[in-house]
Design goal:
14-stranded mixed sheet, 3-stranded antiparallel sheet, globular
Length: 256
């Protein structure tokens, strides 16, 4: 059951009609300050109301692995609906809003409804709706305009890093020509937790530079989880429906 739960929730979290593929980056300017880098990062905001995505994904942890397909519907800043399918059969559905996470899965006939605590615990870092949405569309987890970041050049990328008194380390790697996120990490060394999300490739459409692939790695003391997502097709600004209802016979589960 966990593999479908993990895939459904993490999907919450595109070959679209694209103008070009981003493959090369120019040499970064060593003299740019972190404030200027962040300003350029936010120059081009994603402009859409809804996304409809068809994708494929692989899930692997220390005990199991699975390949599935997923239909993802996003109403920006409001809700995300994910349908996970295996061999064409819907195995799980998840509805995620700013207020709560809901999902049900078919194998055990169970469903969950609650806050982001369970998802945060599973991935090893605090999450909310905005972080999950940003992760899926290739934006930074956090609002980089809030807080103070140190900036250095590393492998021709801008590396922005910050640490908190609570022992949380955040690192963002931005492309030198686009200032888009190439990789982002959140780690808690004392707790042995780390979440890393990488975007190996993107494509440009009129509405946004979107990821073509997302590689997610979550590490904590109990083990490691890897999820790789490929966006196969995407459409913007359609009138989407978000149907979600738990079958009557399903049993509610609680995650500590």
């Amino acid at each position: 059951m966990k593999k479908y739960i993990g895939l459904a929730t993490i999907f919450v979290l595109f070959s679209c009609t694209a103008k070009k593929t981003l493959v090369a980056e120019i040499v970064a300017n060593k003299e740019l300050t972190s404030e200027k880098i962040i300003e350029k990062h936010y120059n081009d905001k994603m402009s859409f109301s809804t996304l409809y995505i068809k994708s494929s994904a692989s899930y692997k942890d220390d005990k199991q692995s699975q390949n599935v397909t997923a239909e993802i519907k996003v109403k920006k800043d409001e809700k995300i609906l994910i349908s996970i399918r295996f061999l064409g059969i819907t195995m799980a559905k998840a509805l995620i809003t700013p207020e709560k996470v809901q999902y049900y899965e078919k194998i055990n006939g169970s469903y969950f409804e609650g806050n982001y605590g369970a998802l945060s615990q599973w991935l090893g870092t605090d999450l909310d709706f905005q972080k999950v949405q940003n992760m899926l569309i290739g934006e930074s987890f956090d609002d980089l305009k809030i807080g103070k970041y140190d900036a250095i050049l590393e492998d021709k990328l801008y590396k922005l890093s910050a640490s908190s008194n609570a022992g949380i380390n955040k690192t963002f790697y931005l492309g030198s020509d686009t200032f888009l996120v190439k990789k982002q990490e959140i780690s808690q060394t004392v707790q042995g937790r780390m979440l890393q999300v990488s975007y190996p490739e993107r494509k440009e459409a009129s509405e946004a530079f979107l990821p073509l692939r997302i590689a997610i790695e979550a590490i904590q003391n109990s083990g490691k989880t890897n999820i790789n997502i490929n966006y196969n097709s995407v459409s913007f600004n359609e009138d989407l429906s978000f149907p979600y209802s738990v079958p009557e016979s399903y049993e509610r589960v609680f995650i500590n």
